[in-house]
Amino acid sequence: RADAERILSNDDVNQKRVQLSVPPIGAVLVVDDDEAARWLVVRALARSGIQTFEASNGREAVEHVLERPELIDAIVLDVMMPGLTGFEVIRHIKRIPAAANIPIILVTASATEEDDIVRGVEYGAIDYIMKPISTAVLTAKVRAACERSRAERRLRYDLRFAELHAMIDPLTGLFNRRHFESRIREASAYSKRHDQPFAIVMMDLDHFKSINDTYGHETGDHVLTQFAGAVRSVLRGEDVAFRYGGEEFVLLLRACDAQRAADVAERLQKKLRARPYVFRDGSTRTITFSAGIAAALSGEGYGHAELVSRADAALYRAKSAGRDRIAY
Ligand code: GH3
Ligand code: MG
Ligand code: MG
Ligand code: MG
């Protein structure tokens, strides 16, 4: 052990140098009741640029995984341990949703016990290493497991990112119409179940075409983003705004009746009046909109399509009545 420590202290120096320039290629939990065996694994992994955590029994291992599942890329797990065996540890880990996909490499004590390997694989281990451990085989397998783990994590991240992108309008940063369709379904079901009203406000900018015609499409775009900012500023936490179409927007207001929905729309009108849009030629214009409101009463469970068409009809009435107004 003293020799091992002398060697290790040299390695540590090298290791530190490596770690300064290169981030670890993975983080691995090493579980073994035998300190010397754990030591060997930890040292071999550290040498190949892998960060390690240690647990000396099954309980510790499970606790470690429970605390920080997202920090572990792979687990090297001794089968034969007092207390929880390696198999039991696998069973526990597989029940932790955030950890169920962490690749587990079993360390089996004897080459003869095929049963152990079979059982371990059945429990969900992806690979195994036999004692006495070959450090070359160990590091090769652990590196592969870490790579796989990280690739999976990247993929999950990319998917979530893509999902988010699919619901956001790139110009205004508001949710898009597609997301509105799914949120209004949810709101409709929720309002029915919890006996709570909700309302939608359909808004269409007035004479927007003339802005495009006078100042160009880019300025039109900028007016839309400014409008979206004003919309955001008048919403409560549980209210959501969507860009429904070109210059049409819709608000989804939880726990809200038609009267309070009109209050929100009026707040937006005031905001726009207080801050007219300044064009690049110095002229200003108050951006106005027409709005149609439709509310689903408590427990009524309005069909979402019906609600949208009622709001649309109200919006049409607001337009025909002269624009810059709110209709029910
Ligand atoms: P109304 O008061 O009747 O609503 O008049 P309007 O001019 O706003 O209505 P109309 O529907 O005739 O025109 C809407 C215009 O909005 C037409 C279209 O060119 C413009 N538009 C739609 N989407 C965008 C966009 O993303 N950017 C810009 N700059 N213009 C857009
Ligand atoms: Mg053991
Ligand atoms: Mg329009
Ligand atoms: Mg319009």
From TrEMBL:
InterPro entries: CheY-like_superfamily (IPR011006), Diguanylate_Cyclase (IPR050469), GGDEF_dom (IPR000160), Nucleotide_cyclase (IPR029787), Rev_trsase/Diguanyl_cyclase (IPR043128), Sig_transdc_resp-reg_receiver (IPR001789). The keyword Phosphoprotein applies. Residues 27-146 form the Response regulatory domain. Residues 196-328 form the GGDEF domain. The modification 4-aspartylphosphate is found at residue 78. This is diguanylate cyclase. It holds the Pfam family GGDEF. One of its GO terms (molecular function) is diguanylate cyclase activity. Keywords: Nucleotidyltransferase, Phosphoprotein, Transferase. The keyword Transferase applies. Signal peptide: none annotated. It catalyses: 2 GTP = 3',3'-c-di-GMP + 2 diphosphate. Its EC number is 2.7.7.65.
